[in-house]
Amino acid sequence: MEGRKRKHLAEISEMAWNKRVKPDRSTSDDDDEDISVFLPDTRNTRDWSNATYSGSVKNLRRVTPKPVSGSANGLRRSTRIRVPPLETWRNERLVFKTLASGEVQCIGIEKGTPADNSGLLQMERKRERIELKKKQSVERRKSLRTQSTNVRDTETGLLVPAPVHRSFESLRWTSPPTEVRPPPYRFTKAFSSSSISFGFVEFSPFGKKEEQHSPTHNSHFTIMKGQLEVTIEDRKFLFKVGDSFIVPSGVPYSITNCTRFKSLLTVCNFILPFFTDQ
Q: What is the DSSP letter of 143?
C-alpha cells in the first residue's frame, strides 16, 4: 500500500514538472504560465552553464553559480600609480610618458626648488631690525643730552664751546591757557635771542588759534605737516605742506587746522623792520 502511494506521488510530481517546464502548445494563451520566474536569468554576467538545481520543485530558484576569477569574484585591483608623498611646497610633480601602445607610464618625480629658507631669512631680517632699533635708541638718548660744539669766535679768533645743536625731543612744549583737553595747539622755542627766536607750533585735529597780533615782532611761518586755513586781516588763505607766510607786526591773524590729523608749523619771530616804513 505504501509503495503504491509513493509511486502515485512520483507520477503526480513528474506530471507537474512536465506541465510547468514544457507546457502544451495546443493550450490557449490564457492558460500559459510565466515560466521566467522558475528559470535562471541568462542576462547575468555570471556563467550559468554549470548551474545545479535541487531536486525539489519548491527549491527550483536556488542555484549555485560557477565561481569565476577576476573582478567578478569581488576582488578589485587599483590602477593608481603608487609613489612616495610629493613635497608640493617645493613644486615637486609627477612626470608621465605615453608609450607606443597608448598607455601612460609614470617615469619619475621631477624635483622642485631647493630647500625653502624663507623662514630663516625672515628671522635674520627681524634680528637686524631689532639691532637697528636698539642702536637708534642709544643714539637718540645721546642726542637728548646737552652737548657743546667748539666754534670760532669772530672777535677773538679763539674756539669757544657753544650749544649749536638741539634735538627735537628735548624741546619743552607749552599749551595756551584753556580748559579744553587736548589743547587746540601747543608751542615750543628751539632758540631765542633779543632780536630773533625760532620754534614750532603743533595743532591738534581741527584745532584753532584765536585771532591775535604781536605789537613788536614779525612772524614767519612754514607748514611742515598738514593743511591749514590762515586769516590775515580779513583775507583767508589755504596753505599746504611747504607753503610759508609772514605776518607783520601789529596785524591780527588766526590759524585753523582743517584736517583730522595733527599739523606742524615752524615759526620765526624777528624785530627787524619788515616794511620800509618801519
A: H
